[in-house]
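All the exercises in this workshop are built on plain-text protein records. Sequence and backbone structure share a record, each on its own labelled line. The question running through the whole workshop is how a given chain folds. The record below serves as our worked example for the rest of this section.
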Amino acid sequence: MTVRILLADDLSFMRMVQKEILSGRGYDVVGEASDGLEAVEKYRILSPDVVILDITMPNMNGLDAMKKILEIDSDAKIIICSALGQQRLIVEAIKSGVKDFIVKPFKPERMFSAIEKAVKS
Protein backbone atom coordinates (compact mmCIF):
# COMPACT_ATOMS: atom_id res chain seq x y z
CA MET A 1 0.00 0.00 0.00
CA THR A 2 1.33 3.42 -0.94
CA VAL A 3 1.30 5.91 1.94
CA ARG A 4 -0.66 9.06 1.03
CA ILE A 5 0.81 12.27 2.50
CA LEU A 6 -0.40 15.85 2.95
CA LEU A 7 2.37 18.46 3.30
CA ALA A 8 1.70 21.76 5.10
CA ASP A 9 4.40 24.44 5.16
CA ASP A 10 4.17 28.15 4.37
CA LEU A 11 7.40 27.96 2.33
CA SER A 12 6.73 26.59 -1.15
CA PHE A 13 10.43 25.72 -1.47
CA MET A 14 10.23 23.48 1.62
CA ARG A 15 7.13 21.72 0.28
CA MET A 16 8.91 21.19 -3.04
CA VAL A 17 11.97 19.68 -1.32
CA GLN A 18 9.82 17.44 0.88
CA LYS A 19 7.72 16.33 -2.09
CA GLU A 20 10.82 15.41 -4.13
CA ILE A 21 12.30 13.43 -1.23
CA LEU A 22 9.05 11.61 -0.47
CA SER A 23 8.08 10.92 -4.10
CA GLY A 24 11.57 9.56 -4.74
CA ARG A 25 11.00 7.06 -1.94
CA GLY A 26 7.64 5.95 -3.36
CA TYR A 27 5.31 7.95 -1.12
CA ASP A 28 2.28 9.63 -2.72
CA VAL A 29 2.08 13.34 -1.88
CA VAL A 30 -1.66 13.84 -2.40
CA GLY A 31 -1.84 17.48 -1.36
CA GLU A 32 -0.04 20.59 -0.20
CA ALA A 33 -1.11 23.44 2.06
CA SER A 34 0.52 26.81 2.69
CA ASP A 35 -1.16 27.47 6.04
CA GLY A 36 -2.96 25.68 8.84
CA LEU A 37 -6.48 26.50 7.66
CA GLU A 38 -5.73 25.08 4.23
CA ALA A 39 -4.20 21.97 5.86
CA VAL A 40 -7.39 21.32 7.82
CA GLU A 41 -9.57 21.75 4.72
CA LYS A 42 -7.34 19.53 2.58
CA TYR A 43 -7.33 16.89 5.32
CA ARG A 44 -11.16 16.83 5.21
CA ILE A 45 -11.17 16.46 1.43
CA LEU A 46 -8.19 14.12 0.90
CA SER A 47 -8.12 11.93 4.06
CA PRO A 48 -4.35 11.33 3.77
CA ASP A 49 -2.59 8.58 5.71
CA VAL A 50 -0.04 11.03 7.17
CA VAL A 51 0.11 14.82 7.59
CA ILE A 52 3.45 16.62 7.86
CA LEU A 53 2.90 20.04 9.46
CA ASP A 54 5.18 23.00 10.01
CA ILE A 55 4.48 24.92 13.25
CA THR A 56 4.98 28.50 12.10
CA MET A 57 2.42 29.25 9.39
CA PRO A 58 0.02 32.15 8.70
CA ASN A 59 -3.75 32.11 9.37
CA MET A 60 -3.49 29.06 11.67
CA ASN A 61 -0.29 27.63 13.10
CA GLY A 62 0.62 23.95 12.91
CA LEU A 63 -0.30 23.18 16.52
CA ASP A 64 -3.81 24.61 16.09
CA ALA A 65 -4.18 22.82 12.75
CA MET A 66 -3.08 19.58 14.43
CA LYS A 67 -5.79 19.99 17.08
CA LYS A 68 -8.47 20.69 14.44
CA ILE A 69 -7.42 17.68 12.38
CA LEU A 70 -7.53 15.45 15.46
CA GLU A 71 -11.06 16.76 16.17
CA ILE A 72 -12.03 15.63 12.66
CA ASP A 73 -10.21 12.30 12.97
CA SER A 74 -8.84 11.18 16.33
CA ASP A 75 -6.73 8.54 14.53
CA ALA A 76 -4.98 11.07 12.24
CA LYS A 77 -1.25 10.42 11.85
CA ILE A 78 0.45 13.79 12.23
CA ILE A 79 4.16 14.61 12.17
CA ILE A 80 5.45 18.07 13.03
CA CYS A 81 8.40 19.24 10.91
CA SER A 82 9.69 22.58 12.08
CA ALA A 83 12.81 24.65 12.58
CA LEU A 84 11.55 25.47 16.04
CA GLY A 85 13.39 23.20 18.43
CA GLN A 86 11.58 24.63 21.44
CA GLN A 87 11.05 21.99 24.11
CA ARG A 88 7.67 23.40 25.24
CA LEU A 89 6.19 23.16 21.73
CA ILE A 90 7.52 19.63 21.22
CA VAL A 91 6.03 18.47 24.53
CA GLU A 92 2.70 20.19 23.78
CA ALA A 93 2.53 18.59 20.33
CA ILE A 94 3.30 15.10 21.64
CA LYS A 95 0.78 15.42 24.50
CA SER A 96 -1.81 16.52 21.95
CA GLY A 97 -1.34 13.42 19.82
CA VAL A 98 1.39 14.12 17.28
CA LYS A 99 3.25 10.96 16.24
CA ASP A 100 6.72 12.47 15.83
CA PHE A 101 8.66 15.72 15.65
CA ILE A 102 11.30 16.38 12.99
CA VAL A 103 13.61 19.37 13.39
CA LYS A 104 14.61 21.26 10.22
CA PRO A 105 17.00 20.93 8.58
CA PHE A 106 16.37 17.19 8.48
CA LYS A 107 17.97 14.21 6.82
CA PRO A 108 15.66 12.29 4.47
CA GLU A 109 16.10 9.08 6.48
CA ARG A 110 14.74 10.87 9.56
CA MET A 111 11.59 11.78 7.65
CA PHE A 112 11.16 8.24 6.33
CA SER A 113 11.51 6.72 9.81
CA ALA A 114 8.97 9.20 11.24
CA ILE A 115 6.46 8.28 8.52
CA GLU A 116 6.93 4.55 9.03
CA LYS A 117 6.54 4.99 12.81
CA ALA A 118 3.35 7.02 12.31
CA VAL A 119 1.83 4.52 9.89
CA LYS A 120 2.49 1.62 12.28
CA SER A 121 1.03 3.40 15.32
